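Usage

Read records sequentially. Each one opens with the input sequence:
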Amino acid sequence: MQNSSLENFKQDINNIREYIQYINLINKVEENNRSIFKLKKENLNSTFLETLVNKVCKKHNKENIKNTSLKNFIEHLHSFNREKKEFEYKAIIISLYGILENTISKWIQEHIKNVSLIVCNYDNLEDKFKIEHFNLSIKLISLITEKRHSKFDNIDKENILQKLNQSIISPNKFELNSEAYIPLSGNLKHTKVVEAFKPLNIDLNSLTNILHREIIKIDDLVGRRNDIAHGGQIDNILGISEFEDFISTLQIYMINIFDIIVEQEIKYHFQEEKIIYIDEPKEFYQSNTVCIINVKNIELKIGDILFVKKNNKYSEVTILNIQQGDKSIESANNGELGLKLDSSVKKNSKIWKKLI
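and closes with the structure output:
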């Protein structure tokens, strides 16, 4: 998986936070001017507004403001308050769910494409994986033919069939049908997300214990989205300040899923022997983001991806800086090196270099 995929997700989340900050700034206008704009909806009429705007203009010595955007803003803000809160609630809930569903689909497709690149021969894939690929590809062809799902409108069924045939007759030149793994459900509660990853031989049930609270919150988000999408009665509208819990929860949930996908891809690299062993670091600094290793005839350079293994758990790190002696260098292939990494490495871990 590309780090950019995770960063794109984080940017989507940040955009929601920025939108909420924008709403907060708008709401502050009323708070900061409450002593001036003592408006009551039942008294809101053109004469009252005219008088009020005149007072505001006089106070700020800006007579030319009268009958301009300030008047329109005051009038709109106080006549749309309840509807505004409901619309903001719906927009944020739908957007957060959209990030969840779209990101899951994108990551699944990216992972399938990566498997096609890492694994050299279709026959090297697990039998269960191959069976799922065949069945899902046939199902996708059927869905394209039925034309009931717009998400498949631009997919060529002949191309799907060709890839499926290629994997069988020329397994050393295979390409998986990544589109066949796109979840069809518009109701991606945690159990549905788990089901979506099963055909990839990725088990997300391990998240149930470590992310119990987060999973409950994700399911709550999906339930709220469904109520909005189906036109149900909305009785519990969240305030703007209450959304941060949903946002941070979604971020934790998705980062954990990303790490599991990455770990699965690393296992494929080990299976295909597209790695080379480097060393087991003995010294660590800066919260284990700097480690000292000994390298023998293996070139390491800034930007290289390294695989870390401890107790059959896999992760990856990227080299940010290399130091040999007292000098920072771009690359090296022998000797004792200090590596600055983009994340921490646990003690007693072994490190390999990714070859592709």
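Summary fields computed downstream for this record:
- The chain is about 50% helix and 15% strand.
- Strands lie at 275-279, 283-285, 290-301, 305-310, 313-324, 327-329, 331-341, 350-354.
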